[in-house]
Every structure is written in C-alpha cells, then in structure tokens.
Amino acid sequence: MSHTAALPAPVQLPGLVHLSDGRVLAVGGLDAGDASTADIVGVLPAPAHLAGKLPQPAHDIGVTAVGRTVYAFGGGTAAGPLDTITAIDSGGRARVVGRLPLAVSDTTAVSIGATAYVIGGYTTTTPQRAVLAYRPGHPVRVVATMPHPVRYAAAAVIGSRIYVAGGTTGTQSRREILEIDPATHVVRVVARLPSPLAHSAGAALGGLFYVLGGRGDSLTGQTSAIWAFDPATGRLRRAGRLPVALSDLAAATDGDQLVVVGGRDSAGVVHAERWTLRRS
C-alpha cells in the first residue's frame, strides 16, 4: 500500500470510476465542511486535477462508466436528493440525459457491458430495495429486488454478477454479501461479513470482491480492515488494512491495483489522500 496526498481538497462520499482509457475520476462528494461539491476530479493519471463540474453540487452519487462515458445517478443536495441521470463525456462536460423513477441518494452503481445498474438508495423517507438498470437511450427498469433496503453499500461486478456487501437500512447496518444476477433477476445471500458494515468501498480485482473500510452504526466506529470475497469458493478472508480507519471512502480498480480516495476518520477528519493497493 502506498499513499499520496494527491487530491486538490479533502472529500468524502464521492463517486469513483475507472474509464476504459485509463483515467480515474472522482465525482462530487462532501468537502471537509460537509458541503456538497460539484467537482469532477481527475485522480489518475497523476497529478490530480479539476476535470469538470457537475450541473450542481451533490454527494452520495452512484457513478459508473459505460464505454468512455461516465454516468452519475441521483445524489444528495442541501435541498434533497436528485432524480437526474448525468452523463460526463471524455472532456469533463456534464449534462443531464435522463431521469430516475425516484429522487434518490446513497446509491451504488456498477456496469456490465452496455448497461449500468443502480443499487438501493434513499428518498429522505424510504430506503430502497430495487436494483435499477439503465442502458443509454432506453428507459430505466427494475431488474431485481433485494431482500432488505440498502443504503451506503459496497458493490462490484465479477463476470455477469453484481456483488453487494453490507450497507444500512437507515437504522441498522447489515452483514450480508448479496449476489445479484441481472439476467435472471435472482438475488441470494452468498456470505456474511464478520460484523455489520456500511459506508465502505467496494471493487473487484483478480476475480475477488474487495470491501474496504467502512463503519457500523456508530459514527466513530471506522475500520481499516480490507476483506476479500471469492465467488468461486464462497470464502471470505482478511486481505489487509488501510493506513487509516476510514468510512465514506471510494475505491476503483485500475489495472492490477485498487485506487482508494478520500474518506472520513473516527475523529471526523475528512481526508485528501489517494492510496493504491496491489495484490500480494
């Protein structure tokens, strides 16, 4: 694990995405004063730089890439959640290209092929169980329903399946690792974390689903643990530690390494570091 104070400013709850051209972008989030930011930051290639702006500041955004275009789904603002689907092109220009069925924040987004999937979320009154599918140019549709509502979950794709770890219903953090098959609409519990965990980051590397950091129901219960789940064997194992116990961080896969940015520690300090994690 190496780290560099590489971000222009501290950030928590950004969306982080790796593009097919090798860039890694951090989208939105909350700054050190808990205010939403509209910044689109180019994290890689280094040095980090401002690459664009969202149409309005937002945090807790589900972000993923379809080809060379980044899509941001919903997000939280001072006035409440958004229902927007925002496309960010290769030049950092952002524009609204669609609408979600509901205004939601606290989502996680992943993509398989030409389709983006939006997992869970929160409307300010109701946590969500739905997994939504969005194919650019087509209407949003529900492809699966999770056994319980999920906010602030870690998620990643391995093969044709989506893996979702932990999260919270809004009142209670969860332990389950879910496997979602969008093609058959089947959702099943495939493992359980050692303890309830939300506000963590997820990424896939080498056929494993990594769950990094997070916290339980306590605002000061951040962990530095990194867990790895192997879908082929169903085994969950400890895979290392972050340099700092963090929640509300973001992670993405970049070649043979994981890139981790931002987050909040148990003292309430919001971080501006970028870490890279390589498999041992």
Task: Give structural notes.
By secondary structure, the chain is mostly beta strands. It has strands at 2-4, 15-18, 24-27, 39-44, 49-53, 62-66, 69-73, 82-88, 94-104, 108-112, 115-119, 130-134, 141-145, 154-158, 161-165, 176-181, 186-192, 201-205, 208-212, 225-230, 235-241, 250-254, 257-261, 274-278. It has a four-stranded antiparallel β-sheet with strand order 1-24-23-22, with no helix packed on it. It has a four-stranded antiparallel β-sheet with strand order 2-3-4-5, with no helix packed on it. A four-stranded antiparallel β-sheet has the order 6-7-8-9, with no helix packed on it. It is globular, with a radius of gyration of 17 Å.
Write the layout of secondary structure elements.
Elements: E1 2-4, E2 15-18, E3 24-27, E4 39-44, E5 49-53, E6 62-66, E7 69-73, E8 82-88, E9 94-104, E10 108-112, E11 115-119, E12 130-134, E13 141-145, E14 154-158, E15 161-165, E16 176-181, E17 186-192, E18 201-205, E19 208-212, E20 225-230, E21 235-241, E22 250-254, E23 257-261, E24 274-278
The main sheet orders its strands as 1-24-23-22
Helix content: under 10%
- End-to-end distance, in Å? 10 Å
Q: Rg to the nearest angstrom? A: 17 Å
Helix and strand string, N-terminal first?
Answer: EEEEEEEEEEEEEEEEEEEEEEEE
* Residue share in β-strands: over 45%
Largest sheet geometry: 4 strands, antiparallel
The structural class is mainly beta
Number of helices: 0
Query: pLDDT below 50 for ≥5 consecutive residues: which ranges?
Result: none
Quaternary state, please? Answer: single chain
**Mass-distribution shape:** globular
Beta strand count = 24
* Arithmetic mean of pLDDT: 95
